[in-house]
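Re-run with default settings, no changes from the original entry. Doing this only to confirm the output is reproducible before filing.
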Amino acid sequence: MADRALARGAARLASFADEVGTTGEVTVTGFGTRGGPVDGVRAVSPPVGIDWVQPAEMTVSCGAGTSVDELEAALAQHGQRVALPPGGSVGGALAVGRSGIRRLGDGPSRDAVLQVRYVSASGEVVKAGGPTVKNVSGFDLCRLLVGSHGTLGFLGDVILRTRPRPRCSRWHVGRVDPFELVAHLYRPTSVLWNGTSTWVLLEGDERDVVAQVVGLGLTETDGPPPLPTAGRWSVTPANVPSLTGEFVAEVGVGIVHHTSPPPPRTIDPAVVAVHARIKERFDPWRRLNPGVDPLDG
């Protein structure tokens, strides 16, 4: 079965590479939930499907076009999950590089990636990383591709690290200071704050979850608050207390979901130069997602 899955994955990836080709501008499309393809450019779609799940090794292999929700449903049968934000495709989540509101506990989405196979600007299939951490050496191309918005290569398939699905997962809310609260909690999965109320996601053994909130002024609630979608700000965690307006901040992470667009930011020219040199090495012909700038994301 494993051999058939590998053969099927290789054939699927070869077909994807043929679609990308070797000449002309090309863009990659998924579910359109995280940006969508470039207008007026020939579009290709990455492979779809779960190749295998190895619960004992806590890894899973799938095509980049696979739905995150489908992947989560398959992993749930084994009591596991993956640290990617819900909705959209696996490749889309990784290409954009944005984590969900569980980042405080789960870490960034790039940490879930063990191996990728992607199609380069020259139409070749390239492997980066390895199926286990101990097999990886050298420059970490996986982390470079995560957040590159498909400008360095089009993700074809990935091997992801999975996590145990918690026995108990509960949201709590209260009018408490989130910055004082975190000192009394053991590894909260998420802490959200809108300037008045604080939402906390605690996971683990039910007895531990119940014991943690005793005397903290928190009550159980159905879930997190609605997140404003007009602006997604990135601020240093220390600057979160000084925010104004209508917002929901991810405490300890520095991501702010705001009702206003983010203020203009100044990017260090040295950072811009590094990005330009990397793009030149990976795509000197400017074929892949032309006009897209990861620094604008």
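The chain has two domains: 2-164, 168-258. The domain at 2-164 is CATH 3.30.465.10 (Uridine Diphospho-n-acetylenolpyruvylglucosamine Reductase; domain 3).
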